[in-house]
Amino acid sequence: MTQLASLALASADLGALRERVRLLAENRPAVYRMLDPAGRVLYVGKARRLRARLMTYFRASFPDDKAARILHAAGDITWDYVHSEFAACLGELRQIREFRPPFNVAMNRTRRAVFVKILDSPAPKVYQGATIGPQDGRVYGPFRSRTRVTEGLRVLNDLLGLRDCEARMPIVFADQGDLFTATTQAACHRHELGQCTGPCAGLVSEIDYRRRIETAVAFLEGRTVQPIDRAVAMMQAAATAQDYERAARMRERYEHLEWLLAATVRSRAAVELLTFVFRDPGVFGDDRAYLVRRGTVRACFPFPTTPIERIAFGAVVRDELAREEPVTGPLPLEAIDELLLLMSWFRSHPDALKRTTPLEDWGTTVSP
């Protein structure tokens, strides 16, 4: 059900807009949109009690408060009622993704999660960040400790000789000598220290560099521990040579890599645990069944209560289970925001987990 204000008003007529909100908006969960006078979406928000939330905009002080600045830029407010607070959170996220409202983009809160990313480039690099850009080809995580991820990636890059320079750095491989004038000196000191193969200076072939990136990806996906083996071998060699200072440094590097490997395992497990059917109670008894798999909502239906409804929903679940998805692969880029939302929701609402059941219970039985 959609409740719309009947006519768009000029942004200066805040008194009339306030009265319409007071009269029309109900105190129930909803997703609302602030529109400019041309009808474009400026801001998308969510509310557990819509009227109370919207009225706070009219009490905000302009221009100090963000809410007042949004309201003064708007010419109209529209909203969609939803059945629950969870549905409002999910609807807000999806409408932000659809409309890309300028106030949402400009005022986004900084994420606390961090991701390991593979730059999509002729010479890819492995780095960390809280946001995902169009240049990121693969993404892993999420992780909680930016410092420890940074330390682990620094060791991984050093051991494999991967670059950590700016994405815009010109790249020339050793096997491209016919096309480019070979550079004799790398752009930074890491090559001289043996920590980078120098793809900026034609000091490594493309196939060699790609093999190193493939090793890094396999490590992040838990398919190899080769970088750890290399750190252990270097630590043992230093100890045999009685270079105990170097052995201690290599032990520290080993510990950073060990933590990163364990963190990737934990992150994959956390994503995989978000796989179930979630019964979300509606404020008017209109419960919903959300089919959640690996942290994304794949389907939503009124919660099945009759035998025929359970059979139909069970068929939907079986179809989803029949779709094979790699557990160790990168995160789907388009679903990362939804994954973070579901992680945050079930972390802050632990009782909601009591209303979840495994997909297999619905896919193999008529009435779970």
What does this structure look like?
The protein is of the alpha+beta class. It has three domains: 2-106, GIY-YIG endonuclease, CATH 3.40.1440.10; 114-266, no CATH class; 274-364, no CATH class. It has helices at 14-24, 50-59, 66-73, 85-99, 102-106, 146-160, 206-220, 226-240, 244-273, 307-321, 336-348, 359-364, and strands spanning 2-4, 30-35, 41-47, 76-81, 114-119, 126-129, 136-143, 276-280, 288-293, 296-302, 356-357. Strands 1-4-2-3 form a four-stranded antiparallel β-sheet. A hairpin with a 5-residue loop joins strand 2 and strand 3 (41-47). Helix 8 runs antiparallel to helix 9 (244-273). The protein is globular. The two termini are 30 Å apart.
Overview in brief:
The chain is an alpha+beta fold. Helix content is 43%, strand content 16%. It contains twelve helices and eleven strands.
Distance between the first and last residues' Cα: 30 Å
- The succession of helices and strands, N to C, reads EHEEHHEHHEEEHHHHEEEHHEH
Total DSSP helices? 12
Q: What percentage of the residues does DSSP assign to strands (E)?
A: 15-25%
Determine Rg (CA atoms, Å).
Answer: 26 Å
Spatial ordering of strands, largest sheet: 1-4-2-3
- Going by helix content, strand content and strand pairing, the class is alpha+beta
Number of strands: 11
Mean pLDDT: 91
Poorly predicted regions are 1-10
What sort of overall outline do the alpha carbons produce when their principal axes are compared? globular
Structurally, the number of domains stands at: 3
What composes the largest sheet? 4 strands, antiparallel
Instruction: Tell me the helix content.
Output: 40-55%
